[in-house]
Amino acid sequence: MRATKILVGAVCSLLLGTAAPADADTARVHCHLHVKSPVMKRTDNAANCQFSQSQGNVTVVMYPGNRAPLRFEFPASKQNVTYQRLNHEAGIKFTTPVLTLKVFWADPGTSHRF
Fold it and tell me: Which range is the signal sequence, renumbered to this chain (predicted)?
């Protein structure tokens, strides 16, 4: 009986458009971070990353060697407001006034251009 109620509830949710949002697409990728700061000695970092996207909202977690992971959030509602997004066949570039984060689908080696 309980299973029937759960199934009916799930079907009603689907029909009414109130189903839970789809899971994010997540992938292991490679990133290159350039921080635009005249006070930092080293402003370029390359590292392995995790890329997640759900309904246009992007989260990138960068694992820079022996330091704590860095988390970047790029909400779809803020595109062209607080950041610019450029899609490329090799990956995606996110640009803000203080940084540029490039996400590469495959390891770019020492070339961080697209």
Answer: 1-24
Q: Is there a domain that residue 67 lies in?
A: yes
**Which has the closest alpha carbon to 34: 56, 57, 64, 78?**
64
Domain membership of residue 7 (yes or no) is no
Look at the alpha carbons of 72, 77, 80, 86 in this order and tell me if their dihedral is positive or negative. positive
- DSSP code at position 79: B
Tokens representing 66 are 């022996």
Write down the pLDDT at residue 43. Answer: 62
48 pairs with which residues across the strands? 30, 63
pTM of the model: 0.73
Q: Range of 89's domain?
A: 25-104
Question: In percent, how much of the chain has pLDDT > 70?
Answer: 75
